[in-house]
Amino acid sequence: MTTTEPPMPAEVGIEASMRTSMVEQARVEHILAGPRGPHIGAFFDFDGTVVAGYSASAFLNAYLRRLAADPAHLRRAAGTIGVSQVVRLMSTTSRAETRDRDMRALYELCLAVLAGREEEELGRLGEQVMAAKLAARLHCQVWRIIQAHQRMGHTIVLVSSATRYQMAALARELGIEHMLCTEMELDGAAFTGRLAGPLMRGPRKATATAAFAADRAIDLTRSYGYADTHDDLDFLRAVGEPCVINPTGAMAQAAAGARWPILPLGRRPPRPETLVRSLLAWGSLAPTLLAAAGLGLPAGSGGLTAGLELSLASRAFLRAAGVRLRIEGGQHLRTQRPAVFISNHQSPLDATLVTQLPISGFTIVVKDELRRIPGLSRVTNLLYVERTSPQAAQQLLDEALGRLGGGTSVVIFPEGSRSLTPTPGPFRKGAFFIARKAGVPVIPIIIHNSGQLMGRSRKTVTSGEVRITVAPPIDVSTWKIRQFDDRIAEVRDLYLSTLAGWG
């Protein structure tokens, strides 16, 4: 059963979105129908393929901001670069297709700034940039393809002109062990300001891929390759299963001529439009909450209007932002009530989206800091949890059991915090323990792509459609305490398989 709620103006071409989804699903099914084992490789370009845009710009911007706290080093670095190099850098990072000399100029600038700095410092910065920027740029469609390759036991490799410091943190988050990349020269633990070898670019990527495959007995004729730019033609020709991701210009023509599969990812709306919509969305939140509270029942009258207030405010927010919902399995929301509803959590949008599901009589467990949102404290039906309090778990248990005993369902995000990528974090036991104690089922709500529209740390919202799958209720009444870890892992696997497209 699939429904679309609420009806909102579509700002992203629905036909294009559906076409992308069909091509992506066909690709996943093709991988799952193919050979298994580590002798099959899956080689991915990084910038523009795994993540949108160039990781170098985000990395360098973050590093330059850090250097502002070290004026002496900043002056030394500034003395080695000129205005023309900075202009070339900005031009390079804004183009889909880059020339080799422009890429070399980019690395010369980066290396000049980094000379003499410790490798450990750059590793820490890579973790921070990944969490703050790159994770939000991850292409969810490519994430699902990576998941399919992992399910088949393939050897997955990132092959990129980027350095390992740009890729390593996200590679670990994605469970990717191998990287073929541009290496930076070290003198002990410090950077010398020189490359340790050639740029991993153009024909060099194809050569490195072939050498890696030979060392590990990988059959390239049956292996997969993914890239986005014309510079990667030799790289894609090195594998038997090439696929072009969101190509432009010369690469789109070459892919069509070679009859290679193409996965279009679509284009984000222009940034000014996103900013305007986001301002309107945030601006609608407090007035709608306060207006709904003024029309509702007094506090303590059963919590009915609390859900109404939050639902109306969320609806206004999503309408202004141009966010639409597509719900699959909506019948499971009404089969057994009350219930403990659980949801994965990657975006600030998630709680807002849940309020738009046809669930009457429910409360949501939210972090205590949300009390600061104007008007939200009037929503008496929410359960606030203070995560730093040692008594918080018991207090949440008591309050949740009280609500369930009164016929009110409870919505919980079992990860406890937003995940960096579509891969759900570990699920905590609390939601399942509450359901078992109350004798009610657990109903999984699986949000597919909210992180694409609003990253975990962003304040702006991109218009588009969010897909939500509701799975059948899970009876936890017979779970033994000693079984909780295994059973909860099975539920998390349900999320992973559904999000990855094979569930």
**Biggest beta sheet attributes:** 8 strands, mixed
Total strands: the figure is 16
Shape annotation: globular
- Mean pLDDT comes to 83
The stretches of 5 or more residues where confidence is low (pLDDT under 50) are: 1-14, 92-97, 297-306
Question: What is the percentage of strand-forming residues?
Answer: 15-25%
Distance between the termini: 16 Å
What is the helix content? Answer: 40-55%
Structure annotation, total helices: 18
| Computed structural class | alpha/beta
Describe the structure.
The chain is of the alpha/beta class and 503 residues long. It is built from 18 helices and 16 strands. The radius of gyration is 25 Å and the shape is globular.
Brief synopsis:
The chain is 45% helix and 16% strand. With 503 residues, the protein is α/β, with parallel strands linked by helices.
Topology, element by element:
Blueprint: E1 2-4, H1 14-32, E2 41-44, H2 55-67, H3 71-78, H4 83-92, H5 100-114, H6 119-137, H7 140-151, E3 155-163, H8 164-174, E4 178-182, E5 184-187, E6 190-195, H9 203-215, E7 224-227, H10 233-237, E8 241-245, H11 249-258, E9 262-263, H12 271-295, H13 304-321, E10 323-328, E11 340-343, H14 350-354, E12 362-367, E13 383-385, H15 392-405, E14 409-412, H16 430-438, E15 442-447, H17 450-453, E16 464-470, H18 484-500
Parallel strand pairs: 2-3, 2-7, 3-4, 7-8, 8-9, 10-16, 11-14, 11-15, 12-13, 12-14
Antiparallel strand pairs: 1-10, 5-6, 15-16
